[in-house]
C-alpha cells in the first residue's frame, strides 16, 4: 500500500472530523453536510438531497462497520482500516463522488467552473492552494472549467489506495 494512501486517509479523517473532537461521530457528518450545502444553494433539491444522503451513508456504513463497542465514535485507527479498504468504502465513495460532482454543475451543462469547485472543496475543508493545484491537474478547458465526469473520477481515485500519482495527491499537504 503506497504511503501516500495513508496520508490521504489521514487527511480525510481530519476533514470528516468537522467538530474537531479527534473522533468521528454523527455530528461531524451533519456539519459537513451543512457546510457543503451552504455553498450549493442554487443546485437542484434532488442534487442537494443526493449529497446529504451520500454523507449520511458514509456515517451509517462507518458506524455499522467500525463502531464495535457501540459508543457512536470512530477513532483514526478504525477509520484508516475502513477508508483504505475498497470493499468496505468503495461503494460509499462512488455515491459521494457523483453527488459532490453534481453539486459543482448547477446549470447542468456538464462543466464545473473554478470558483464553484473552490467553494465546494473549501466547504469540505481542503486548503485553497491544494484545491487550486487539483483543479489545474484536472486539465481545465480554455474557459477554466472541468467536466463533472473528470471530478467524479478524481474523487473515486482519491479513495482507491492502490492508485499512485493521481491528481488527488495534490490535496495532501507536503506529501512524503
From TrEMBL:
Gene3D superfamilies: EF-hand. It holds the Pfam family EF-hand_5. GO terms for molecular function: calcium ion binding. InterPro entries: EF-hand-dom_pair, EF_Hand_1_Ca_BS, EF_hand_dom. Residues 8-36, 58-86, 96-124 form the EF-hand domain. This is Calcium-binding protein.
